[in-house]
Amino acid sequence: MFWQTSRHSVDLSRPRVMGIVNVTPDSFFDGGRHLASDAARAHCERLVQEGADMLDIGGESTRPGAHAPSVQEEIDRVMPVLEHACTLGVPVSVDTSNPELMRAALNAQADIVNDVRALRRPGALEVVAGHASCGVCLMHMLGDDPATMQQAPEYDDVVAQVRLFLQERLDALVRAGVDAARVVLDPGIGFGKTPEHNWQLMHRQSELIDLGRPLLVGWSRKSMLGRLTGRGPEARLPSSIAAALAAVQRGAHVVRVHDVAATVDALAVWRRAGLAP
Ligand code: 9MG
Predict the structure, then answer these.
(1) At CA 243, angle to CA 31 and CA 120, rounded to 5?
(2) In terms of pTM, does the model score above 0.90?
(3) Minimal CA–CA distance to 105: which of 15, 185, 21?
């Protein structure tokens, strides 16, 4: 299976690693570390050297309680970094829900729009549909506000409801004229879910893969791993690697991670052992 994006057709016959570049003051793990453009540009280069198959660059923290930047603030944070990332030879994704930033990033050659709100903001779907070939990641979030999504999230059947949401968003995009080959789906681990909901999504991941589109998942350093292991974000590398491998073993095509080198090494062993494609 291939993922069609603006400049690259990504071969998903083996699992791919998406390296996270947060240009934010307040992300839960690396907030503030790459806020200066120079540091963020150097971080992009480092992740590519470590073997990242693609980069995901974002300027809005979705941590509950984080300050939402203005559209202009988000553009000013992301664009200088994204323009540099687009020279590094790997697909570049812009992590945003803002149509203005999507448009600017695509004009600057970005390959993918990664939207945690699955193009539900007015104008967002139109930006993607109006582009000839960009890739898109549609993610599930309960509601559309990270500030409140973790307030007692409830589902009758989390897997069925996430699946239905992703199917409906995919259908809306295809109705707007977007080739399904441009779309990957994402259950939104940690976005309006209890730890138990997230683990159900892991256990029953095959039901999401049955939708027929590649699956991207992000478990890296998230709090349900801390809940399980009793460790803070800084000490969640082993559990993040284990979660990435488990997701790949259950058929995920792309893992979104902070720790590219460690994940690439772990996947190399996993594949050599015959456990992953
Ligand atoms: C921006 N962001 C934070 N976590 C994420 C996840 O799990 N998936 C995607 N697509 N984006 C995410």
Answers:
(1) 60
(2) yes
(3) 21
Cα–Cα nearest to 213, from 276, 167, 162: 167
Greatest alpha-carbon pair distance for the chain in Å reads 48
For residue 218, report the distance from its CA to the centre of ligand 1, in Å.
6
Residues of the chain above pLDDT 70, percent:
98
- Condensed to tens digits (0 to 9), the pLDDT of residues 18-58 reads 999 999 886 677 767 676 788 999 999 999 999 999 999 99
| Residue of 60, 54, 99, 104 whose CA lies nearest to 83 | 104
Classify burial at 210, counting beta carbons within 10 Å of its beta carbon; exposed 0-12, middle 13-18, buried 19 or more: exposed
Closest CA to 92 of 113, 76, 107, 78: 113
Comparing CA positions, the residue from 108, 101, 118 lying closest to residue 59 is: 101
Tokens (6 digits) for 144: 């559309």
Pocket of ligand 1 (CB under 6 A): 58, 62, 95, 114, 116, 137, 139, 186, 188-189, 216, 218, 256
Task: Tell me the backbone φ, ψ of residue 252, rounded to 5 degrees.
Answer: -65, 145
Pocket test for ligand 1, best of 95, 219, 254 (most atoms within 8 A of CB): 95
3-state helix, strand, coil in the chain (%, to 5): 40, 15, 45
pLDDT digits (tens, 9 = 90+) for 235-247: 999 999 999 999 9
Q: Please report, for residues 31, 68, 128, the alpha-carbon distance to residue 85 in angstroms, rounded to integers and kept in the order given.
A: 19, 24, 20
